[in-house]
Structure formats: C-alpha cells, structure tokens
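Trying the structure run again after the queue cleared.
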Amino acid sequence: MLGQDGLEPGDELAATEALRADREIRMLIDAGRTGAANALFDQLLAKVPPNLAPWTRAAILTRRAVSAWRLRRIPLALELVAEGWSDIDIDHPRGSSAADTLGRLGYLLEGIGHRHAALDVARVAVEVARTGDDVEILAHSLQNLAGTLNFRAAEQPPAEAAATFREAIALLEEGLTLVEGGRIHLALTAAHGASLAGVGDLDRAEHTARRTLQAAAPEDNRWAMSVGNWVLATVRRAQGRLTEAADHARSAVHDAESVNDPSLVQRYSQDLADICHASGDFAGEADALRRNIGARRTAVETLQEGLGQALEQRRLAIRAQRLATAAQEAAERDPLTGLANRLGLERAAPHMLHHAATAARHPWLLLIDVDWFKAVNDAAGHAAGDAALREIAAILRTECRVGDLIARWAGDEFVVLLTHPATEEEAVGHAVADRIRTAVDTHDWTAVLGTAQHPTVSVGVADGPGTFERLFANADTALYTAKRKGRNRVEPFEQP
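Done. Tokens:
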C-alpha cells in the first residue's frame, strides 16, 4: 500500500521533509522567484533520505530533476533524472510512486524535444497511476497527459486538433473529480480551460479561465496565471476583440517568461504575434516575434546543452568501461607469462565448453607440468626459472591454434583447452600435446639457462563432453601416469 505522495508506508517519515521542500521549491518557481528557489534547491540537493524503496527514491530524484530543469540547470537535471531512471524497473511499473516518476520523466522528455517518447511515457504514467491508491498522483498524471495533448493540438490542423482537445477534456474532467482545491486542482482547471477554448466552447472556456486567475492570484502562481490569460486571449481572438486578446496574450507571455518556461513562451508569443498582425499592430507583432525567437533560441541551447551533457556522460561511461575491462583482464591474466591465470581459465572454460556442446565440437584438456623444475631453479636461480616459464609460455602460444585457451594454472603447471569439429576423427588433442612436448624438448635453452639442466614437460590429456572440473580431474590422472612412466611424455586418460 502506498502512502501520501506515493511513498511506501515505511518510507513516509523519512521522505516527508524532502517532499515538503520539493513542493516549496515548485511554488517558488511557479511564482517566478527563481533566486529563492535556487537557494532552497541547493540546500535540498544533498539530502536524499536513506533506505528508500527504488520507485520512491526515483520519484524524489525525478521531482528534483524537474525543478533543476525549470531553474535552467540542465546538466544537473539530466544527472538527476538519469540517476532516478537507473533505480527503476521500467518493464514492470506499478503503483503511485512509479506513476509519479514516469509522469515527470515524460515532462523532461518533452522539454528535451523527445516528443513522441514524452507522449508515450505520459500515457503509461496514467495507466500506472490507476494501479496505485494516491488520487493526487493520478490527477497529476492526467493533467500532465492532457497538457501534453493540448500542446500537440495547438500545432495540428483544425480537424485533427478538435479530436485531440476532446481527448484532453475527458482526462481533465476525470482529474477534476479526484481532487478539490490545491495546486493540482488549479493546474487541471487551467488546462481544462485551454482544451475548452480549443474545441470552440468559448463561454465555458472563459468561465474556467477566470476561475483559474482568481485562484492563482492569491498564491502568486504565475504558471496558472499564464495559462488563464492565454485562454482568455484565445477566446477574445475568436470573438474578434483583438485589443483585449493582445492584452491577455501579453500577460500570458510575461508570466511564462517569469517562470522560465520556454515552451509556453513560444506558444503564447506566436499567438500574440498573430493577434497583433491581425489588428495592424506591427510594432507589437515584431516584439512578440523577438520574444518567440528568444524562446526558441533558449530551447535550442537547452537541447544543445543536454546533448553536450549526454556526450560527456557517454565519454565518461566508455572510459569507466575500459578501466573496468582492463581491471578485469588484469585480474584474469598471469603477470609473469601473460597467459590467462587460474581465475581467467575458470571463468572462460565453462563458456567454451558450452559452445562446444551446442556447436557439435569435441573438447580436449591438456594439463602440462614442467619436469624437474625445482632442479632448474636450484641450479640456475629463480630469475632464470622465471625466464624458463616465459619461454614455455611462448612455445605454447606457437604450438597451439588460434582459439585455443592457454593458461598458467599454478607454479610450473599449464592448461590448454581446445575443441575441434566432432565429425573429424583426428585426435587433435594428442597431436597438439605432442607438438608441445617435442618443442620444449628440442628448444635451445642455452641463452636462458646456460649449462643448467634443461626442462622438459609431461602432458596429461583428457577429452569428451562434460564439465571443466571433470576434464581437469581426468587430465590430472593422466599426468600422474606420465610422471610415473618417466616424464617427458604424453599420456591420455584411460577409464579404469
């Protein structure tokens, strides 16, 4: 069950203060008090209540992302929404917190210019909100979707626009039945007036717009006032009362500018320019167009900044991925020989054996032990012994095939895992093992070991389907046999 603002009951006490401050920031932004909003936002930014459920934390982070966006702190907004988005399971959203997160995500996508995705996310947010029990979040989701539809309709041909406005009206009227009074009710009322004006219901649109202005004034809610004046401008324009229409449109533009909403400024200033042109007020038209161009420039700069931030984040992500890959490779690599180490072999071998099983390939495992290596170390020294191991690693690379997995298992033991098509009858593992034994035995060791005893290798060979552990155990048994029979030889595993 979800509590107030879509929070899990156990999270409510921890998150109440953060949500209260979030709402206060939004009130300051809607009132055009950006300085005070920025100051409070900076205080709030470092405070995310601990131990929140993922959707609850995501809801708080996306709320803050919206506040950052409206304060024109674009990189921060993108960082916050990315962090919130990463916390959620987008494939199975349910409940009010999920709907709250998705609704605000849709708002940000709209602002970035990803408009098709924004509308899709807004629709999903409404459906998800219906699975929760927080009516305010459902009402807010309905208002967000309807507002998005209003803006789409304003750009459509009249025949298409009417249907879109009617869809918005149905959503808004549902939302108005869910809440009484408050900021969400005011937002629903304002958007409802715009939809009514869009379908030509001018009397109801004007009545709704005046109620919006009356409720917004005491709260100094400039956003709602801008919408109310825009609706009145639309009504007066349709009535042919162009002077009054221009006055309301100027008020709408002014209020939209004061709350840092370029999308509203673009819409309202374009309408104001059209009204001024129709009335012969060419100076007013030029001023409105300048405001429109300024808003569009801001929108483009916002998008450019967002793209720049995304590019920088991608660059950092690639760098982090490369560092992580390098660290993983280093952890799986033997520093002396450059071959895979035991960890690398144990990680790679199961995948190689699985592929062999699915691709009809026959697997072989060679376990190689250096004969008399302690004597080599004692006679020539540990540095020479290390050099000898590096020489043997080089021989293994030369004698094995591309695609064979070569690893230093431990000390003077090496492993080669290889496969070949099951249809081939040749005992490939035995052939590779014998090449390795011969190459080590005939190698010129003088430069590395001088006159000290030269190493040879014994090899145990196991093959057939099964796990890496089974193959290794069988090869180990075969290696023991090779050692017992005199070393410097290859022995296959034989079932007892």
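The first helix runs from residue 12 to 30. Worth checking whether this holds up in the mutant runs.
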